[in-house]
Design a protein that fits this description.
The structure is a single chain. With 95 residues, this protein is mainly α. The chain has 5 helices and no strands. The chain starts with a helix and ends with a helix.
């Protein structure tokens, strides 16, 4: 990754790794030395990607926990419905 960004500094490292954003960085020719100081290094890029992945993991774990609670609730309701006396079921069949 570092070799690619060194060889092709106009390529956006986020686009290379994740396919997100613009393919090319917008760099003003007169501010080339200034732009180099504000470019994201590969290690900074990896750190940002890791932080993004951690946030996504936390979000997904929250969704999983919510779904597990829903499953437990539905399983309990299913048990209660199955435990009701069969006389209720007979009334429905007679109608």
């Amino acid at each position: 990754m570092e070799a690619i960004t060194e060889q092709y500094p106009q390529l956006n490292p986020v686009w290379l790794m994740r396919g997100e954003g613009e393919m090319l960085l917008s760099v003003r020719p007169e501010a080339d030395t200034e732009a180099k100081s504000t470019e994201i290094t590969p290690s900074e890029m990896l750190y940002k990607l890791l932080e993004d992945a951690k946030e996504e993991k936390a979000r997904l774990l929250s969704i999983i926990e919510s779904q597990q609670r829903t499953i437990e609730m539905l399983a309990e309701q299913n048990k209660k419905a199955a435990a009701q006396p069969e006389s209720n079921a007979g009334c429905a069949a007679a109608v």
